[in-house]
Amino acid sequence: MPRTTGLEVARALAGRCHVVFVTAYDEYAIAAFDEGAVDYVLKPVTPERISKVVARVKARLASPPLDLNALLRKLADHEESVAPLKWIRASLGNVMRMIAVADVVYFRAEDKYTKVVTHESEALIKKPIKDLYDELDQEAFWQIHRATIVNLHAIARVERDFRDQPVITLKSRPEKLTVSRTFAHRFKSM
User: Fold this and answer.
1) By the number of CB atoms within 10 A of the CB, which of 7, 95, 100, 118 ranks highest?
2) pTM value?
């Protein structure tokens, strides 16, 4: 969510509507139900799971929403305590290597792997890019394509191509990264 978090929205709507939490973290699923959330959906979301959620919400519509303030406090505390990823364990040929996340220029999905690109090397990790993004500091890393995440500190400049799509030039790598239409809004102020 670009301007606010899901917890802030739930807090603002507390008591006025039924709430379904959607997240990649399962630590508080039981607490969510105990505190009155209609449901707690773990990513990745499937159509079958959404059907069940809709049925639960419809069943709850006759009753007033429950107070979720205790749950929202617990979730906010958890969100603040989860530190962004600092190190990545990656394979470089037959060698396992520890890469500081701050040294990463960008990540790119490649088949079943994610390529980790630093100033001077590349390595592969088995973590899907979608899961990786949730663990990164989103103040320092932006997803610019469904298959690409870039370190904002590694950007030299952003220009627009003939289709008016943003194209990123990196400080220390020759390749250029194209921003997809889905994520182009991040560069609208250009």
Assistant:
1) 118
2) 0.58
